[in-house]
Amino acid sequence: MSNSHDKHHEPQPPVLTGQHTYGSLSDKVASIPLDPKHSKGWIFGFLIAFSLFGLLHMAIGWVFFKGVGVWGITNPVGWGFDIINFVWWVGIGHAGTFISAILFLVKQQWRTSINRFAEAMTLFAVACAGLFPLLHMGRPWRAWWVFPYPNTMGLWPNFHSPLIWDVFAISTYATVSALFWYVGLIPDLATMRDKATFKPVKMIYAMLSMGWRGAASHWERHQMAYLLLAGMSTPLVLSVHTVVSFDFAMSLIPGWHTTVFPPYFVAGAIFSGFAMVLTLLIPIRKFYNLKDMITDKHIDNMAKITLATGWMVFYGYIIEAFMAWYSGNQFEGFMMLNRMSGPYAPFYWALILCNGIIPQLLWFKRVRLNMLFIWLISIVVNIGMWLERFVIIVTSLHRDFVPSAWDIYTPTKWDWATFLGTIGLFLTLIFLFIRVLPMVAGFEMKELLHHRKKHQ
Amino acid sequence: MAQLFPRKINTIAKLSIIMGLGLVTGILVLGGILTRGPYYTQVGIAREQKVPFSHKHHVGGVGIDCRFCHTSVEKGAFAGIPPTTTCMKCHSQIFADAPMLEPVRESFRTGKPMEWTKVHDLPDYVYFDHSIHVKKGVSCVTCHGQVDKMPLMMKKNTLHMEWCLSCHRNPEKFVGLREHVADPHWKNTEDQKTLGTRLVKEYKIKKLTDCSVCHR
Q: How far is CA A335 from CA A47, A254, A320, A403, in A?
């Protein structure tokens, strides 16, 4: 990568600060997973996450036992928390690939210290997302019916259905993201192997690093593989949430049947993904003292992207409302009015507040560099993006074409248990990840250091 | 630094890629074979019954028409299992003391119906109707096979949905003459393609492949 960097780039604020050598970087990165002691804070956080994960088991067990009737879904609102959470989690899973692939291809150096973590977060978010359609099926043990294979029913899945496109979009995304993440990890896994002192741990890292010796031929292939995977992931960043938006846009439901959905969903996904990276990274960099690597510059850049994508999303809201009026379609018009002033109006206005108004604070550099502020804003955005999916799904469905079919959707405690449970699963995986794998790409940091030395 | 692994690990690591792929493919192929094979479908496996009723003897030997016992096949969804009195019409006279037929006599005495093991058992979510198939010229043997040659009843076909659809998609390959529908010995003298195409038109057979035709 270093040889491909433009040598005459303009001076930028450093993306690596402090007095670091190759050795100190390696030590810093490897020391967190290799520390034989669990810190108290880690144990505390892990226990909370793990108990929520337990709640997920309970919730899923109950859904399997009783069926999806334990949820709040009703007859016009057949898509409740399950789909809301699915879209929310998939959206969060977008930052990883965006940071890793797109920012890699456009040679943004500031991606290096956060890409590993963001990719891991992506994988875990996609895992959480994947659970919901499975549970939503009602008979998850038939889930494999969504795949085209020569079955005894003599049928293919319905290729006209966006839900089947979704199966391919999400499974491709999960596979490519996992590969990309793993390929990026290999050199660092080898470092871990070399640093580890306890033999079994050494052997595990050795197996995972696939015999990496750091030979020039290894690096050459690694760089090429990484570049190719980045190229493959890039269209996926756009395609996955586009296809998710098709689940809605291909239908004829007022409020769903709009052409603005694909771009607006993709922007929303990156928006929520960056918000989640900020929510997680700000405490982690403080806790593990990673400020040299994940600098204020990183946080600042991520905040800017959040602001930019936030505007794209806000534009989507404006267009939705405008089109509802401009189309002159009475159902579209009613849907929008119902959204703004119906029984779910508080959710709509909370969403505008969270995604449209509050992120405007990010225009100010003082806010972008105030970690507490930006952390709070990122949480607000996460909530806002969840509300967005709630509003899109519930308000479009609950009052459809036939007033006699109207109903109110209220989630049950099992809806909440499943949702909180997936947050538990997500955080459990994050906690395990930071304990067993290097969360900062050590070798890429060393490249940065090399680069910095060369140009000083 | 000492080597962590012996040299042979290189080969094992490479082999594990092939083995892993092989394992996954193997499991999938095995699943496909099992769900289509007789272990799962019971095709060609004679099922144990309390009374070893032989269709070979009754249909092939004696020459009883299918509809003599399965009376509702032309009118109802179910072909119907005959009541014990149907058996006793003959077996009060012939083989009246055969120990093999004791369960039949017992059922006749007590009025408790005979218990048979259902051989052609469709899933409960399939709403199959015999009468329409018989009316459209699908003969008994097309689905049930040559029962006149089966000492004990067995499935001739898997009853998988792909099997149903093979006819629902191409009925002309399977329809026969309505009037010979219950005749296990009938062979069409014409070429099936000409006959089938003619009958599909004549009997107004539609290619019913909507889900709701069989599932509700």
A: 44, 7, 11, 12
- Between B1, B28, B36, which is nearest A152 by CB? B36
Q: Which residue of B has its CA nearest to A207?
A: B13
Is residue B77 less than 8 Å (CB to CB) from chain A?
Answer: no
Query: A211 and B13: CB-CB below 8 Å?
Result: yes
Beta-carbon count within 10 A of A418 CB? 26
Query: Given an 8 Å threshold on Cβ–Cβ distance, is A152 in contact with B158?
Result: yes
Residue A3 has pLDDT above 50, yes or no: no
Q: Would you say residue A36 lies in a domain?
A: yes
How many Å separate Cα A450 from the centre of its chain? 31
Contacting residues of A for B161, CB less than 8 Å apart: 152-155
Helix-helix angle A296-326:A261-287, to 10 degrees: 160
Q: Given CB atoms, is B25 within the 8 Å cutoff of chain A? A: no
Confidence of residue A138 (pLDDT cuts 50, 70, 90): confident
**Does residue A139 sit at the B interface (CB-CB below 8 Å)?**
no
Question: A150: which chain B residues are within 8 Å (Cβ-Cβ)?
Answer: 32
**Rounded Cα–Cα distance for residues A4 and A182 (Å):** 23
Whole-angstrom distance between the N-terminal and C-terminal Cα of chain A? 19
> DSSP string covering B64-114, please?
--HHHHSGGGGTSSS--PPPHHHHHHHHTTTTTT-GGGHHHHHHHHH-PPP
The whole-angstrom distance between B91's CA and the closest CA on chain A is 42
The strand pairing partners of B155, in sequence order, are B43
User: Within an 8 Å CB–CB cutoff, is residue B158 touching chain A?
Assistant: yes
3-state class of A288 per DSSP? coil
Q: Compute the distance between CA of residue A109 and CA of residue A297 in angstroms, rounded to an integer.
A: 11
pLDDT at residue A358, rounded to an integer: 92
Indicate the pLDDT class of residue A439, thresholds 50, 70 and 90: confident
Residue A2 domain flag: no
Q: Do A152 and B161 touch (CB under 8 A)?
A: yes
**Given B4, B28, B162, which is nearest A153 (Cβ)?**
B162
| B152-202 pLDDT per residue, tens | 999 999 999 999 999 999 999 999 999 888 888 887 778 888 999 999 999
Looking at the complex, does the CB of residue A152 fall below 8 Å from at least one CB of chain B? yes
CA-wise closest residue to B134 among B67, B206, B215:
B67
Q: Is residue A9 part of a domain?
A: no
pTM for the whole thing? 0.87
Distance CA A13, CA A34 (A): 31
Q: Is B29 on the interface with A (CB under 8 A)?
A: no
Residue A218 falls within a domain, yes or no?
no
Each residue's pLDDT tens digit, A67-121: 899 999 988 898 999 999 999 999 998 888 888 888 888 877 788 888 888 889 9
Q: Is A193 at the interface with chain B, CB within 8 A?
A: yes
Cβ separation of A150 and B32 shorter than 8 Å? yes
Size of interface A-B (CB pairs under 8 A): 33
Distance CA A305, CA A274 (A): 8
The number of distinct structural domains making up chain A is 1
Q: Which domain holds residue A364?
A: 16-139+237-450
